[in-house]
Amino acid sequence: MKKRLILVSVLFVVVALFASCKKNCNCTVKSDGAVIDGYENLTVGEMSKSDCAAYQDDTWDGLGYTYECVSE
After folding, report:
1. In a domain? residue 60
2. Per-residue pLDDT for the chain (72 aa), expressed as one digit of tens each?
3. Measured distance CA(68)–CA(53) in Å, rounded
4. Where in the sequence is the domain holding 55, given as residue range(s)?
């Protein structure tokens, strides 16, 4: 019983560590839903998946462009 509890605890810790790892965040800039040439998969830095999904850039926002960001 103790071995199972230890195994489950170790698995939980490993999953938690991998889920919080920082990964490259890449964004694609769009105008009216169309991808702007040369602005596909721009690396904006390393961050967690949730931070990448919530990434905002005041420059692109101010110019009226939209962008989609995904972590890899």
Report:
1. yes
2. 777 777 666 666 655 556 667 899 999 999 998 999 999 999 999 999 899 999 988 888 899 999 899 988
3. 8
4. 22-71
